[in-house]
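TODO from last week: model Shikimate dehydrogenase (NADP(+)).
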Amino acid sequence: MTDLYSVMGNPIGHSKSPQIHAAFAAQARDNMLYTAQLVPLEGFADAAERFFSHGGAGLNITVPFKEDAYRFAGEYTERAKRAQAVNTLKRMADGTVLADNTDGVGLVRDLTVNHQVELAGKRILLLGAGGAVRGVLQPLLEQQPAELVIANRTVSKAAALAEDFADLGNVSGCGFTEVEGAFDVIINGTSASLSGELPPLPVSALTPATVCYDMMYGSGLTVFNQWAQDNGVTTTIDGLGMLVEQAAEAFTLWRGHRPQTHNVIAALRNERRTHR
Ligand code: NDP
């Protein structure tokens, strides 16, 4: 029997998830079908209920339904509870729906495994305080950085997030211009790059050895990574690897075996290059 999976979002046309999961399924010859569904803004719970009652095995959830998906679920992984927003749902054998947030593990795997970036003992700056940042905080803090600073345009949101996660490590919140000293790793989790804007960070946050990571991806360098390179940074990474790794983590939760990601990341990069 074919197992059914889907990604729900609004908009959804841009989603690469069907292509990524089809590639994972092909590797192990898994008999599964993964579709994309455009869901009306007020309609997530109905759509998810319908999907699971018709035998759906698992869902991915993207903007703007990650909080709705959290409320829909009946069981949670520890990191999902912390994030209060989830990108993965799985129907369990007893019919309950388990929620997970795989974004953070995806980011950490891309940094530490694909790019060999050490996070333990390092000074990390995380830009933004929205859903993506909330989702990555626990997995990042589990890497035991020396310090993690959250900087955001709305300072109160950075401070509130830092307080929520203070029991997991040395974490603080501030505004972009209040950032002090240089960092080993800077991760842009704002959506500023989407509109071609830059968080107004002091250049003193960078050294040539700083690793700059933009969760956003697209064709060519993001505005943030371009700024980093213009200021002497040699290692800049975009969020394509995170996208594939979070999908691999969801696939592993659903299917019980982990797919290879390297070829899938390379194929997507290649496709992007040829479509530029
Ligand atoms: P949210 O809308 O929840 O949060 C947006 C954040 O960006 C807020 O902190 C907001 O600040 C900040 N922001 C928006 N515009 C600007 C600006 N012009 N200058 C400075 N800060 C700004 O979005 P998400 O957290 O869901 O997503 C953030 C980014 O992460 C997106 O680009 C998304 O594509 C990417 N992402 C990538 C993933 C991947 O797999 N690669 C997975 C998930 C997300 P304020 O609080 O002041 O409004």
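Done. The chain has a mean pLDDT of 96.
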